[in-house]
Structure to design on (258 residues):
């Protein structure tokens, strides 16, 4: 699939994969900062942003292959650092496990290694059906938005919240449903973490209620070569909500790979 993408900077390649149901716009602060020293490639995953949204289930493995296809199309054959937030983290793990030779490092932000519980998978299917019946993502946006940010951000910084609301509302019904169903069916990766040799930064907002810090700590401890960064004053969208702290941790990690 031909993905829409941003490609800025020069140097070692860093690929950034956004969360659900957002777009590459969530990485704007990272693209601006990291591209001073690195080549940053940030695609819109299938069904999101400006990329096509076919009527299908979007498995994490399929999304990972889309990213590989993009890198191949750009002539990027050397190992890269892949960073992913939430759903983007699921895709990053799928890519690292299927194509370990293409991974120089990982950044796993506000994500999970466990599969959905049966109840969570059922709720995703119900939400997918509701969004398809409505023809838009509205019902999802209202339910999900309060969980993405720290409570203080929603209360005191509405200008920070508004662009992510717009990105969510712009995601098509077919894109929302395809991603929801793909996430519902994703495998449990916890036992596979020990096979990932690539250096990894695990980052999490200190107020993330979707994938909380204890879960991030368990991921970091299960990986053979990982460090943990807890981002203060941030919820589930830590790189977007507190870009200064996230970028500092990311740059320290990326420079340690040189």
């Amino acid at each position: 699939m031909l993905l829409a993408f941003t490609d800025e900077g020069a140097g070692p390649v860093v690929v950034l994969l956004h969360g659900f149901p957002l777009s590459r716009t969530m990485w704007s602060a990272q693209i601006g900062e990291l591209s001073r020293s690195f080549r940053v490639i940030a695609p819109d995953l299938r069904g999101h942003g400006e990329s096509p949204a076919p009527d299908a289930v979007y498995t994490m493995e399929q999304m990972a292959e889309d990213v590989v296809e993009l890198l191949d199309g750009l002539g990027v054959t050397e190992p890269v650092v892949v960073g992913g937030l939430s759903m983007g983290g699921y895709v990053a793990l799928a890519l690292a496990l299927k194509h370990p030779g293409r991974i120089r490092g990982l950044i796993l932000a506000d994500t999970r290694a466990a599969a959905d519980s049966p109840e969570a998978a059922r709720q995703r299917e119900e939400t997918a059906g509701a969004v398809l019946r409505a023809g838009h993502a509205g019902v999802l946006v209202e339910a999900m938005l309060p969980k993405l940010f720290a409570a203080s951000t929603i209360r005191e910084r509405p200008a920070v919240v508004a662009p992510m609301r717009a990105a969510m509302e712009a995601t098509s019904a077919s894109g929302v449903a395809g991603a929801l169903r793909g996430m519902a069916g994703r495998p449990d990766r916890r036992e596979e973490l020990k096979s990932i040799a690539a250096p990894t930064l695990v980052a999490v907002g200190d107020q993330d209620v979707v994938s909380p810090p204890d879960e991030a700590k368990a991921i970091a401890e299960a990986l053979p070569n990982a460090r943990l960064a807890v981002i203060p004053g941030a919820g589930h969208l830590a790189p977007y909500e507190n870009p200064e702290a996230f970028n500092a941790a990311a740059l320290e990690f990326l420079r340690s790979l040189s």
User: Anything to note?
Assistant: The chain has one domain: 5-256. The first strand starts at residue 5 and ends at 8. The chain has eleven helices and seven strands. The chain has a mean pLDDT of 97.
